[in-house]
Amino acid sequence: MSSQPGTLITGLTELPTEMMVEKPDNFKHVPLQSEPAAQHRIVESADLFRGTNEIMIRHDGLVYRLKITRQGKLILNK
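Given the sequence above, the corresponding structure tokens read:
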């Protein structure tokens, strides 16, 4: 067996140096991990709900229901 760089051992194939990854289109909104973290906007739930315990949110053409439970937690349903 040869230990020189670039030589192949019989029966083995050379490993790829790059990996090709195809991402689905729905990942286009996700920031890449190599990018610095963006500053997030904080919205108070009281400003969203305005005295009610349930609101409807339209996202990408679908309507979701955001509800405050009796325990004060949030539940998001499609």
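Residues 5 and 70 are 67 Å apart (CA to CA). Try to locate this feature in the token string yourself.
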